[in-house]
Amino acid sequence: MRRKRQVRVARKRVVSAGGVVLRGRVPEVLVVSLKEGRVVTLPKGQVEPGERYPETAVREVREETGVEAAVVSPLGKVRYYFTVRNGGEPVTVSKEVYYFLMAYRGGEPRPQPTEVEEAFFLPASEALERLSYPNEREMLLYEVLPLPSSKQGELKPRPFR
């Protein structure tokens, strides 16, 4: 009988922040692409020591895309897991991303080549179709199809989940 090989799995936690940047009366959404265009995602990145989540979102949007944006409100938090290799050993990473609704303030999208391949605006309906990750589509849906409160015309606050 063959013995199973014991694999040591280290765990790592990563915290990031990013934004749903909207531009225009008929909203366009800022997205970035990776992996030769196979992945379309919202701009986001790791929180630096001493930085607050909204500050990270503003910085990462600017660094990855060249676009200036301001935080309007929190949208929510997602957590997911993936595995990477570190010196040949598998490492399970727990990644938490805090998303913010952000208003476009200026600048034309230009990618940061060390991070993303392209940066561009898409009509919101097209972004919903092209975003690669369901949790990011959900963040966009919160803004495109807002949840009504009991009072007509008002929105329910969306605290971090």
Automatic annotation (TrEMBL):
Top-rank taxon: Bacteria
Ranges where the Nudix hydrolase domain occurs: 12-145
Keywords: Hydrolase
Gene Ontology MF terms in the entry: hydrolase activity
Transmembrane segments: none
A Pfam family of this chain: NUDIX
Keyword Hydrolase in annotation: yes
The protein's name in its UniProt record: DNA mismatch repair protein MutT
UniProt organism field: Thermus scotoductus
Organism taxonomic ancestry: Bacteria, Thermotogati, Deinococcota, Deinococci, Thermales
